[in-house]
Design a protein that fits this description.
Elements lengths: L10 H14 L2 H10 L2 H14 L3 E4 L4 H13 L4 E2 L5 E4 L13 E5 L11 E3 H12 L7 E9 L8 E7 L2 H10 L1 E2 L1 H7 L6 E6 L16 E5 L4 E5 L4 H4 L4 H14 L2 E3 L2 E6 L5 E7 L6 H5 L5 E4 L3 E6 L2 E6 L3 E5 L9 H8 L4 E4 L2 E3 L2 E3 L10 E4 L2 E4 L18 E5 L16 E9 L9 E3 L3 H10 L2 E3 L11 E3 L12 H11 L8 E5 L4 E2 L2 E2 L6 H12 L5 E4 L2 E4 L1 H12 L5 H8 L1 E2 H18 L5 H21 L2 E2 L8
Parallel strand pairs: 1-6, 3-19, 4-5, 4-10, 7-9, 9-11, 14-25, 25-29
Antiparallel strand pairs: 2-3, 6-7, 6-8, 10-11, 12-16, 13-14, 13-15, 16-17, 17-25, 18-24, 19-24, 20-21, 22-23, 26-29, 27-28, 30-31, 32-33, 34-35
Helix pairs in contact: 1-3, 4-6, 12-18, 14-15, 17-18
The protein binds sulfopyruvate and manganese (II) ion.
């Protein structure tokens, strides 16, 4: 089968493609393609056109005029509808298209190549035949929109040029909100071959303008040609190829080139004297990722995907994206003032899968009474409505989202587009762990942090059961779904990265979910205290106590920080409740982590098992001396 990679470019073929483009594009748009002058790009566009057979092709550039055109077309096509607030719109995905779809997202693997068993995959020839069959003629009667974007700031060491062809104006609009424009960037690149390509078609649509054939939804990733194919889906995590689909390609690219692509936020944390220190953080969904990045008074540089490069011995970090596609559930005025403001004042926002009534959007946990009827992704909705399986349909989907540009936020960090990124001082990993890890601790060194907080990152799959072991799921570095290279190799790349750095970022483990018999040992906003402590630690400013699992804050420092940050009196009782070392729970965690890696990560680096064994030995030694539960104030200074 002929695909982009196998096309041999000769001038006669180029002339044929140009004639094809001329049939589908306006003169101005044809000129835009020719101005890039890249036969590899032209081959991709010609392939998309011949395969999907759109009536027209629009090639958009970086201009405000084209952004406006996309917004207008999304409304005209009824993929989005206006809300009462100026600039706000809403979009629905079909009932079976409300999230990333692991089942139908697969790697295309050529014969003779192997990927980790844990990754969903399909033979490349078979998969290409299937998805190209589904895409065949899918844009008849429609417009194909060609978008050029840059992952990472454009014209920088971080940038990855991307082109997405789609028949969805909602997808085009999402690209504008979430990524940096890349048309001029493409023009500056010459005839490069290395760029990411995405071909998306929403497929057949219902009267409500949602994908009508969810059983034919497929999302296939061809790492050989760095191409993503997506069909019969609209949910942005499946259709905006630059998000998690491109992340899978990026992890392979970073592996080849010796840098890291991570599922992390980036934030600036204020310290004494107004200084600002940059942190990255990895948390599985629903574990406090965006709320950490959005802490009031701090700045946000990114909320989902970060690139790290070693440059002159420094770890420099940049956001792959320029916007937020955030979970809206539980966003409320008290806990998330910055995002609340954007969602309730004029400006460009796309809401998806919320409830709409009288031109206003509603979502779960917004802290305001939700109407008893309205429209949502199920159509006309009323309280008590059930789906065909008899399940009650909630007013808004739990995975309802908002898309906004980061620049719309008051707390957006001014370094967002710095082509050199920012110097990263710290990294935090956090899961949902009721039993073992203390709320915050610093790793002894890079390897200890990468293994004990990153590779050992666990999260609870059910919230109900406290006692039972085995309800924890490992989601290493919170990126497991997207790791497109062998998992052990990915861990080894993380371990080795520090060797290129003079002062590697300090690694911390956080746990916002520790419980005792009375419930959570912390309040939601206590995380701000931990973040401030980390900021002080990376500047060597507060002493710590040395426990078998990491370095923890002293009671005295926390008293000061709780007063400063939260205006709260912090007691020795609070401290002991939160920071008592639980030896049996920590040993059980090590057992689970070791079992996971022995069973699932055939190429796990030997260092991983050494670090686990060292921590086990430290815990056993402490137990022999002090018993199973050790109050924090018994540990010595570091
Ligand atoms: C996530 O689920 O981690 C997201 C949203 O950031 S999605 O675009 O669906 O990946
Ligand atoms: Mn994410």
């Amino acid at each position: 089968m002929e695909t982009v990679a196998t096309v041999r470019v000769d001038e006669a073929r180029r002339q044929e493609w140009h004639r094809l483009f001329a049939q589908k594009m306006s003169e101005e748009h044809l000129r835009r393609v020719l101005a890039i002058d890249n036969p590899h790009l032209e081959a991709f566009l010609a392939d998309c056109i011949q395969l999907c057979q759109p009536d027209r092709v629009e090639v958009l550039n970086d201009s405000e005029e084209d952004r406006k055109h996309t917004r207008e077309m999304a409304l005209r096509a009824r993929e989005e509808r206006p809300l009462a607030m100026p600039g706000h719109t809403y979009h629905f995905d079909g009932p079976q298209d409300q999230g990333r779809d692991r089942e139908v997202t697969k790697y295309l693997v050529p014969k003779g190549d192997t990927l980790s068993k844990a990754l969903r995959q399909i033979d490349r020839d078979e998969g290409l035949a299937e998805i190209r069959g589904l895409l065949s003629g899918s844009m008849k009667g429609r417009t194909m929109i060609v978008r050029f974007m840059s992952l990472g700031p454009a014209n920088s060491v971080f940038s990855i040029p991307c082109v997405e062809c789609t028949d969805s104006w909602y997808v085009s609009h999402s690209l504008d909100l979430l990524y940096r424009p890349g048309y001029e960037f493409f023009k500056s690149l010459g005839r490069v071959k290395d760029f990411f390509k995405v071909l998306h078609s929403a497929g057949k649509l219902t009267d409500e303008m949602v994908s009508a054939e969810p059983d034919k939804k497929r999302i296939y990733i061809d790492y050989i040609t760095e191409t993503v194919y997506s069909v019969n889906t609209q949910y942005a995590g499946n259709s905006v190829g630059l998000k998690k689909l491109a992340l899978r390609l990026t992890i392979r690219k970073a592996d080849r080139e010796g840098w890291l692509a991570e599922h992390m936020f980036l934030m600036g944390v204020r310290g004494p004297g107004g200084r600002k220190t940059y942190f990255a953080g990895a948390f599985p969904s629903g574990c406090g990722k965006t709320s950490t990045a959005m802490l009031p008074g701090e700045t946000i540089l990114g909320d989902d995907i970060a690139y790290f490069r070693a440059i002159n011995g420094e770890c420099r970090a940049a956001n792959a994206e320029a916007g937020i596609f955030g979970i809206i559930q539980n966003v409320n005025e008290r806990d998330d003032p910055a995002i609340w403001k954007v969602l309730t004042t004029p400006g460009e926002v796309v809401f998806s899968n919320v409830l709409v009534k009288d031109g206003r959007p509603y979502w779960l946990g917004m802290g305001i009474e939700i109407p008893n009827e309205g429209i949502n992704y199920s159509g006309q909705w009323f309280k008590g409505k059930r789906d065909e399986n008899g399940e009650e349909i909630l007013p808004a989907h739990k995975n309802a989202r908002y898309a906004v540009a980061l620049k719309a936020l008051e707390n957006c960090d001014p370094e967002l587009d710095n082509p050199h990124g920012v110097v990263l001082a710290g990294i935090m990993y956090g899961g949902r762990d009721r039993r073992a890890y203390v709320p915050v601790q610093q790793a002894f060194d890079w390897d200890h942090g990468i293994i004990m907080f990153g590779a050992a990152l666990e999260t609870e799959t059910t919230f109900a059961i406290l006692e039972t072991e085995g309800k924890m799921e490992i989601n290493l570095m919170s990126i497991q779904d997207f790791v497109s290279i062998p998992l052990g190799r990915y861990i080894a790349n993380n371990l080795n990265f520090a060797k290129k750095l003079v002062r590697p970022p300090i690694i911390f483990g956080v746990n916002y979910f520790l419980c005792d018999e009375k419930g959570y040992v912390n309040e939601v906003r206590d995380k701000h205290v931990w973040v401030k402590w980390m900021e002080r630690r990376v500047h060597g400013e507060m002493p710590a106590l040395r426990t078998p699992t990491g370095l923890i804050p002293t009671f005295e420092d926390l008293r000061v920080l709780f007063r400063e940050v939260r205006g709260k009196e912090y007691t020795l009782e609070d401290y002991r409740r939160q920071f008592t070392l639980r030896i049996p729970e920590n040993l059980a965690k090590i057992d689970r982590v070791e079992k996971f890696h022995r069973e699932n990560v055939s190429d796990a680096p030997p260092r991983l098992f050494e670090v686990l064994a060292e921590q086990r030995a430290r815990l056993e030694e402490a137990r022999a001396k002090f018993g199973d539960y050790i109050a924090p104030d018994r540990f010595p200074p570091e």
